[in-house]
Amino acid sequence: MDEVVAVVEGSGHERPPGARYTAEELAAEVGISVQLLRSYQSKGLLPPPRHEGRRAWYGDHHRERLLHIRHLKERGFTLRMIAEALDEGAEAPVALVEEREVLRLDEVAERSGVPVEVLRAFEASGLLRPHHTDEGDRYTDADVRVVRNVLVLLGVGLSLDDLMRIARRPLEASEALARDVIDAWSTLVGARLRRGRPAGRDRGGPDEDERAERVAASIRALAGIVGQLVAYRVERAVLDAARAELEREGTEAERAALARAVGPVDDD
To answer: What is the pTM of this model?
Structure first.
């Protein structure tokens, strides 16, 4: 929710709590068109306004809802996924299974500010890994974030070769982990989801299409959750190792700077 707060804080001029808006004022406040506002309302994403005679008034809760919708759209959520997230609340598990916007390499270059030639070098090194489709290689906002993070590391003194030496073992380990995860999924989940599937790999039909969607959704959810879990554990492990290294070799100023960078630590 911090990202949402940032969006709210960065929008327009401030109004006092309890402010009310016409449709035109609210649309301008959050940076969208009146037509889009009414479209969200017609789709049930935005509650109806309060009417006083012939005037329709929107409140702060409408503003916050629109900012949240805009935030989810920027993360690549479809309107269907946004509707589910709004129905289930801001902390709904749907956030773990984002429907990402599909990008081409030139679009990743445009959004990250990194030339296509450099991105191809990142690909060759294994830092970027596109989705291979029948229409060609495709990317998502996750690739854009990775590129931006690589630029941050390069900006603090690491070369690309240095980064690859550091990242090689985790990248290799991720391949083995992926095989183990999918082997376990196939045994524990896939077999159950596929139960009753007609013989023949190319059989179709409505029931089989629905079954296929469940299989794909299960795999996508698993990838997202395992990815977040691994990223979380690796980040914490790296920070713990860094603290230990600074205890041995660092200065008091370095230890204090790291503590400020990661925030207070709960000793419990």
So the answer is: 0.51
